[in-house]
Amino acid sequence: MPEGIEVLSLKDTGFEAEIEENGRTLEENSLIKAQAVYAWLEANGRTGVDGVFADDTGLEINALNGAPGVFTARWAGEPAANRKKALRELEGKDDRSCRFRTVITLIRRKEPDHIQVEGIVRGRIAEEEYGEGGFGYDPLFVPEGYDKTFGELPAELKNTISHRARALEKLVEVLKEKA
User: Fold this and answer.
1) In principle, which of 1, 7, 10, 101 could form an S-S bond with 15, CB 3.0–4.6 Å?
2) Nearest to 70 by CA among 27, 19, 126
3) Nearest-angstrom CA–CA distance, 99 and 20
């Protein structure tokens, strides 16, 4: 983060509420989360906080018309079931291309509206699960330029090439521009 910006986690702020992600897009869910936290901070006298950012991430599989997309985390219920469903839905399909996409929404006190940035990493869905690392679809997702899944790659490497890392890089650029 640029100098002078301190990042606090939800735990650091005391926010513990469950946020209903009922948006139809990653952009909507990211905004819903950021607005909920911002409103809570305002209501609880945390006026010293200049802004809030929140994200939402989706796996978009081309052969499945972008599914699971906004439903990525809850497509079949839990991570193992989600991966099994992806493999089942892709049986017999040649096109296994996909992308992970993260949308970050930033709400700042001094901005009239919110700012959204996205990070994308393209890849393909493997024929079966590989690796124990990561979470969610990581044992299935092979990023472009690699022959291993996110589940097999070292966390340090994955964290530098991931969709979330790319979105955070863009957020930092925006913050530096607006500093």
Assistant:
1) 10
2) 27
3) 24
Supply the residues annotated as catalytic: 56
What is the tens place of the pLDDT at every residue in 117-156? 999 999 999 999 999 888 899 999 999 999 999 999 999 9
- The ranges assigned to domains in the chain are 23-178
Give me 85's structure tokens.
């469903």
Instruction: Provide the sign of the torsion angle of the four alpha carbons 49, 108, 37, 164, taken in this order.
Output: negative
Contact status, residue 70 vs residue 26, Cβ threshold 8 Å: yes
